From TrEMBL:
Domain of life: Bacteria
Residues making up the signal peptide according to the UniProt record: none
Protein name from the UniProt record: SAM-dependent methyltransferase
Lineage, highest ranks first: Bacteria, Pseudomonadati, Pseudomonadota, Alphaproteobacteria, Hyphomicrobiales
Origin species: Chelatococcus daeguensis
Gene Ontology molecular function, alphabetical: methyltransferase activity
Keyword Translocase: no
């Protein structure tokens, strides 16, 4: 599991074309994103951690008038973001050690956060805090329960992991975030488990 967890970024880099093709554009997350953007409020800046190729998630807040800063560790995916949405900021970086020296009105960590190993997830709450101010909205996806799963993508192992719900709640509270909404296996969001919180 350890090797697979570290290999996720390079896997996406090697298979950027099939990953981009396979990522649906139907935006089943629209309801959650609308909820998130309402929580962002007046400070219309969003940090998207694990932004992939920018579609369909990062482009939605951008189209809603937000200044988006997208971060991904796969250079080819960031290259696609820069081509598609040149008005936004796109950075090749590892979210686990991100330190931009600024805060945002909202932070998204959907569909990549769940690839991190458990200890890396725990450390991410410090990254969230470092980029949040009072009122910052945070939305991320997780697994429905604690565990590690090894799937496949393009015939290669693809790692996923989750903490349990009680630990997420405790770590959010310790980081100064209040849970606004949380649904496990949301049937209206392709079965995602979604967390929305605000600092």
């Amino acid at each position: 599991m350890d090797d697979a967890g570290e290999a996720v970024a390079s896997l996406y880099e090697r298979h950027v074309h099939p990953f981009d093709r396979s990522r649906g554009r139907s935006l089943l997350e629209r309801g959650w994103l609308d909820h998130f953007l309402a929580a962002v409020g007046g400070e219309r800046s969003v940090l998207d951690l694990g932004c992939g190729a920018g579609e369909p998630l990062a482009c939605y807040p951008a189209a809603s008038g937000c200044a988006v800063t997208g971060v991904d560790s796969a250079p080819s995916l960031i290259g696609r973001c820069r081509t598609r949405f040149p008005a936004q900021q796109w950075l090749v970086a590892d979210m686990r050690c991100l330190a931009l020296g600024r805060t945002f009105g909202g932070i998204l960590a959907c569909d990549r956060f769940f690839h991190l190993q458990p200890d890396d997830k725990r450390a991410m709450f410090g990254v969230f805090t470092a980029h949040a101010r009072k009122g910052t909205a945070l939305m991320f996806t997780s697994g429905p329960a604690r565990g590690e799963v090894l799937g496949t993508f393009e015939g290669e192992p693809l790692y996923h992991a989750s903490l349990d719900g009680a630990e997420y709640e405790a770590r959010l509270a310790a980081a100064g975030f209040r849970v606004l909404d949380h649904v496990v296996d949301d049937p209206f969001c392709s079965g995602h488990t979604v967390w929305l919180a605000a600092r």
